[in-house]
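Subject: Protein record for review, amino acid sequence with backbone structure tokens
Why sent: The fold of this protein is of interest and is recorded here as tokens.
Notation: Tokens come from a learned vocabulary of local backbone shapes, not from coordinates.
Attached in line: The record itself begins immediately under this heading.
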Amino acid sequence: MTVPTFPSVPSVPTVPTTAPAASGASLDRLRDELRALGRVVVAFSGGADSAFLAKVATDTLGRASVLCATALSPSLARAEEEDCRALAEEWDLRWVGVPTDEMHDPAYVANGADRCARCKTALMEALAPFAAAEAAAVVLGVNVDDLGDHRPGQEAAADRGARFPLVTAGFTKGDIRDGSRRLGLRTWDKPAAACLASRLPYGTPVTLGRLRAVDAAESALRALGFGQLRVRHHGDAARLEVEPGALAAVRGAGFAFVALDLEGFRSGSLNRVFDDQEARP
């Protein structure tokens, strides 16, 4: 398969591995980075990072010079897709939904350690025609904090021409949230929402059924009031991850350990000890 070409923009051959020499984030530096690119296609997932980048880019370059593109994939939670559309309308972003085809890639479906690289490759291939038509650079909401994690997708995106202006401008995740709050963006405290495929252990094939199960489970938990959470898919078992603060209040009351009863609430559960005694011969 031929790798698509991108319009000529200032070259950044690899993902930056460290923050800029000047310490601290700078909104002015970010705007300068965006002006140097001139026209951009923002990979817009609706999360705090890409939302901040999309809004600053649009305010800096003007709506006509910024296209916000959301990858429409089975690994994107339905609520996230809906929020992308809502944010685009609220902020008057120039927005488009772009179907991606990573599910047709056997290596992606196999869910090896390079899954993210396969996904970003599919994303960049899907965005290539838009970048060419716009004579624009593709920019991703990667921040400084992302550089120390296992993120093979960043390298794959950079190899295909992606730019990371938040990194160059020195923005950490905390800086992005603080900057978003100062700009009055409702995404400033939005929980992180990685792709649904990240809920499957490496080696567990990515299937539509598994992605939909995770999406349904997490949506139901959020409807109950949980914010930052993950439902990890382990076959017939779901492993729930919630913020430590959700359980810290109980420990703060003096308990050394906190356990979740997976049978859920049932009235008189402590009476089972008597039921068990009566049932003994």
